[in-house]
């Protein structure tokens, strides 16, 4: 029998076991027996009750207050949990909805561990909190498996995210709280104890992925359980809308007055911006990002216990294994992600092999293009298989990935890394090489829509002063920083003498050399010294101008035909957007919001009079396998389709927006992608390549409506 099951059977009064075999920390069904219990805005109600398994429990009502809580303290001295690994608490939610419960454990030195859990309505369960900091990132993924889970017949609610630190030799208190309830919330509690090891944490992640890469503890309509079922569902015939009324590129034949140049371009006509096909017809770009066959890779090395029935890494399956190192110390997205190197397995590609055998890649490309066209898409978006664009069935984009040994600057955000320093001559060289590579073989292809440069650069920092993050980071750099030297030169030209700058900024500055100090703490803009904000803004514009001009000049040098589609803004500043509008044919924003207009400053864009392309958007839920809901979450699969339709309708109805690209084609792996452990259900198809039927039908209808609506001027 499982050890933990045995422990909890001992708690049942009907069991032959005696509770004394594992001394309890406390018992909230009889709180005066073991530990001291203090109630702060919490009321103990009714008599002791017994759950279905006979375990004693007591009701506690958390009253409306800032933070009502139950505080448990040792009857004498401190608890010594130095040989323990888990806190275990019997809990049951008496409400008809989930109740948020916080668990804080304090030590005598003032340190504490903290976890927040949603206790679902329903039967009694065991809440388990590891006695150390942990998170799904520690297990190699960004979101952990759903809770509670069935741990050998015991409903278990594991705290998958625990923060803080604790001296386990001197534990002084346990605090159970409900944050700011608006009405009384009632929970039933029983015995509290500890157990050695991390058994529940291990069991929560054990065997969660089947041979097809699917979550083993869930059920959904597209889930498959055999190779035969995979082939039947994956090869279902694809039918789509008629393409009559459209030119070869997907442009509308009924919109007139546009220029025919032989290349995609942007044109303002009839009160709105349009993308125009090479044949001179209006084109609203409906795209999909990351249409690739190798997106199902997830690290398996060191966490083999998470996977059931992995194929052998030899013979026909060897092609779907690989190894690598994904660590990037400067990239915030990867920080704290364990299992980030070593051997990986590609579940998606392996399923494609199961579907189509040796020629699976060619079959996938044909099937995928058929699907995209049938679902009303007309563009292959960023990071997609180049062969799909070469097929000349759908227009496509190219990504300019600038990389090299050039200087960089921190804006304080740095999620995907530090900002490139465009004042470094090595950046200019790297940009030219990147554009040369990206344009090779496509500069004369009319099916190419245009180029994106980089992705989601950290133009701003975090927090209320985030707009100035790049300026503060520039001045904090060392004397060798080309950006810092360019900024100092700009200030010297404007102010001439350091004391003039001192007066304008309200700081003590004995000489210009004082700015060269590494870590220079530049002042935050304030009302008393308006010159600070003005100078910072001027620098941000100069920085952005230099970056976008450098890229634009390289594109025009290597490819004079195609659009520069911008830099896929996530965080941005007004200065960066204005510079992009000056040098790019289209300004692109990656918008994770309910509507496109909520993801960028629409008024500013209209004033700049520039077309906008939504480079990324999505809506995710957690009812189709992967644990994450993406950046913008909805409750279920049906709402994903509804949210997509609202977003696309709002985009097509905006006279400045010329297209929107969904991220991404395939669901992310349950245990996290290689790059950063992302593991969300945001795909058009699952890890098995089976489309999510209800969602793609909603997408098809929305895309057809958008194509019809977007051609009309305003």
What can you tell me about this protein's structure?
The protein has 714 residues and is of the alpha+beta class. Among the domains are: 25-205, Jelly Rolls (Sandwich), CATH 2.60.120.430; 253-281, no CATH class. Helix content is 25%, strand content 21%. The protein has 15 helices and 30 strands. The strands form 7 sheets. Strands 1, 3, 4, 6, 9, 10, 11 and 14 form an 8-stranded mixed sheet that branches. Strands 2-5-13-7-8-12 form a 6-stranded antiparallel sheet, with no helix packed on it. Strand 15 and strand 16 (272-276) form a beta hairpin. Helix 3 crosses helix 4, helix 4 (347-356) packs across helix 5 and helix 11 (530-558) runs parallel beside helix 12 (574-583). The longest helix has 29 residues, at 530-558. It is globular and about 85 Å long. The N and C termini lie far apart (72 Å). Residues 1-22 have low confidence and may be disordered.
Question: What's the short story on this structure?
Answer:
Helices cover 25% and strands 21% of the residues.
Q: First CA to last CA: what distance?
A: 72 Å
The name of the CATH topology of the domain at 25-205 is: Jelly Rolls
**Secondary structure category:** alpha+beta
Rg of Cα set: 29 Å
CATH architecture of the domain at 25-205: Sandwich
Give the averaged pLDDT, no decimals: 94
SS element count, helices: 15
Shape: globular
The CATH superfamily of the domain at 25-205 bears the name: Galactose-binding lectin
Oligomer: single chain
Task: Give the fraction of residues assigned to helices.
Answer: 10-25%
């Amino acid at each position: 029998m499982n050890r933990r099951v045995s422990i909890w059977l001992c708690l049942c009064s009907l069991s032959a076991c005696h509770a004394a075999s594992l001394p309890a920390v406390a018992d909230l069904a009889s709180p005066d027996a073991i530990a001291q219990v203090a109630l702060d805005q919490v009321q103990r109600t009714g008599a002791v009750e017994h759950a279905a398994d006979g375990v004693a429990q007591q009701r506690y009502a958390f009253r409306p207050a800032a933070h009502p809580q139950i505080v448990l303290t040792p009857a004498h001295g401190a608890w010594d949990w130095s040989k323990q690994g888990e806190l275990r608490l019997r809990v049951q939610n008496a409400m008809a909805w989930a109740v948020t419960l916080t668990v804080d454990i304090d030590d005598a030195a003032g340190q504490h561990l903290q976890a927040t859990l949603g206790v679902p309505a329903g039967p009694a369960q065991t809440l388990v909190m590891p006695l150390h900091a942990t998170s799904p990132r520690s297990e190699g993924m960004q979101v952990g498996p759903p809770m509670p889970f069935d741990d050998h017949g015991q409903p278990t609610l594991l705290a998958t995210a625990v923060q803080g630190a604790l001296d386990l030799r001197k534990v002084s208190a346990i605090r159970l709280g409900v944050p700011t309830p608006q009405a009384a919330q009632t929970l039933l509690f029983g015995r509290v104890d500890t157990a050695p090891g991390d058994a529940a944490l291990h069991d929560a992640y054990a065997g969660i992925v089947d041979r097809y890469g699917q979550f083993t503890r869930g059920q959904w309509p597209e889930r498959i359980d055999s190779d035969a079922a995979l082939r039947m569902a994956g090869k279902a015939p694809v039918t789509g809308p008629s393409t009559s009324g459209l030119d070869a590129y997907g442009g509308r034949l009924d919109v007139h007055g546009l220029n025919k140049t032989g290349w995609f371009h942007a044109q303002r006509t009839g009160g709105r911006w349009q993308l125009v096909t090479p044949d001179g017809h209006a084109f609203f770009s409906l795209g999909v990002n990351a249409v690739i066959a190798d997106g199902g890779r997830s690290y398996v090395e060191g966490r083999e216990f998470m996977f059931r029935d992995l194929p052998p890494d030899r013979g026909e399956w060897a092609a779907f294994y690989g190894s690598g190192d994904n660590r990037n110390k400067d990239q915030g997205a990867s920080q704290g992600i364990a299992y980030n190197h070593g051997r990986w397995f590609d579940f998606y590609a392996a399923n494609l092999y199961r579907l189509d055998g040796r020629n699976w890649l060619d079959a996938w490309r044909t099937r995928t293009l058929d699907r995209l066209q049938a679902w009303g898409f007309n563009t292959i978006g960023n990071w997609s298989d180049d062969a799909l664009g070469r097929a000349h069935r759908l227009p496509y984009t190219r990504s300019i990935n600038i990389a090299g040994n050039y200087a960089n600057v921190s804006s304080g955000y740095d999620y995907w890394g530090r900002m490139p320093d465009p004042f470094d001559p090595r950046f200019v060289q790297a940009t030219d090489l990147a554009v040369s590579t990206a344009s090779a073989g496509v500069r004369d292809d009319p099916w190419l829509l245009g180029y994106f440069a980089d992705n989601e650069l950290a133009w701003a920092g975090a927090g209320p002063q985030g707009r100035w993050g790049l300026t503060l980071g520039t001045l904090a750099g060392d004397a060798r920083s080309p950006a810092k030297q360019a900024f100092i030169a700009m200030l010297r030209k404007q102010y001439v003498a350091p004391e003039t700058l001192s007066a304008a900024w309200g700081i003590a500055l004995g000489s210009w050399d004082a700015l060269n100090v590494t870590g220079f703490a530049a002042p935050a803009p304030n009302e008393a010294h308006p010159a600070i904000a003005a100078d910072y803004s001027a620098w941000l514009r100069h920085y952005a101008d230099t970056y976008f001009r450098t890229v634009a000049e390289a594109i025009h040098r290597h490819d004079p035909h195609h659009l520069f589609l911008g830099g896929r803004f996530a965080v941005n500043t007004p200065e960066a957007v204005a510079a992009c509008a000056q040098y790019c044919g289209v300004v692109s924003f990656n918008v994770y919001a309910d509507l496109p207009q909520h993801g960028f400053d629409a008024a500013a864009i209209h004033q700049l009079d520039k077309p906008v392309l939504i480079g990324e958007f999505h809506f995710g839920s957690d009812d189709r396998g992967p644990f994450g809901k993406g950046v913008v979450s909805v409750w279920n699969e049906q709402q994903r389709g509804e949210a997509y339709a609202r977003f696309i309708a709002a985009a097509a109805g905006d006279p400045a927006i010329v297209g929107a690209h969904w991220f991404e084609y395939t669901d992310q792996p349950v245990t996290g992608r290689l790059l950063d452990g992302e593991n969300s259900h945001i795909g058009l198809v699952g890890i098995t390549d089976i489309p999510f039927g209800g969602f793609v039908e909603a997408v098809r209808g929305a895309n057809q409506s958008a194509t019809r609506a977007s051609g009309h001027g305003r």
